[in-house]
Amino acid sequence: YGEFNQKIDYVFKVVLIGDSAVGKSQLLARFSRNEFSIDSKATIGVEFQTRTITIDQKTIKAQIWDTAGQERYRAVTSAYYRGAVGAMLVYDITKRQSFDHVARWLEELRGHADRNIVIMLIGNKSDLGSLRAVPMEDAKEFAQRENLFFMETSALEATNVESAFLTVLTEIYQITS
Ligand code: GDP
Ligand code: MG
């Protein structure tokens, strides 16, 4: 509700990428509906969710795209990246392999997306600190070297999720306007 008859000043497409099971769909559920489900099935069908926010008295519709389980087969298509002005590149802080694959995702993203795309590296599941397999410093260094924003989040506990998306959307707004 509340969106009815509302004038939209901008629509920003943001894509979620990263290995399977890192929490992309739950980050999206948290940001778009403030929901989380423990037993989220592999994403089926749903292409994107939207949430309308206000920056600088402008109404911005964030259209956040989620891979429909395509990440398993490295079959994310160029249509997925087309028109994206932002990307959330997600790994799981408890799964070293998901961080090792970040460089590959970045390469694929840069090969397909607009060169001005705003990218946030996200280390998700920060609530599982006792199982940590990726030191925050490693990710920070990588992000700095590659010119990415970086945050650790927990979709489960709703930590930094809002902040991560709003940082990216605000940066896009500043570049666009
Ligand atoms: P996707 O394949 O990247 O879309 O990952 P999902 O969003 O489907 O999440 C995969 C699994 O990780 C599910 O069992 C989620 O409940 C769980 N999960 C997602 N985010 C978090 C989080 O922040 N903390 C914890 N502890 N589990 C999470
Ligand atoms: Mg998913």
Automatic annotation (TrEMBL):
<keyword id="KW-0472">Membrane</keyword>
<keyword id="KW-0449">Lipoprotein</keyword>
<dbReference type="GO" id="GO:0003924">
    <property type="term" value="F:GTPase activity"/>
</dbReference>
<keyword id="KW-0547">Nucleotide-binding</keyword>
<dbReference type="GO" id="GO:0005525">
    <property type="term" value="F:GTP binding"/>
</dbReference>
<keyword id="KW-0342">GTP-binding</keyword>
<protein>
    <submittedName>
        <fullName>Ras-related protein RGP1</fullName>
    </submittedName>
</protein>
<dbReference type="GO" id="GO:0012505">
    <property type="term" value="C:endomembrane system"/>
</dbReference>
<comment type="similarity">
    <text>Belongs to the small GTPase superfamily. Rab family.</text>
</comment>
<keyword id="KW-0636">Prenylation</keyword>
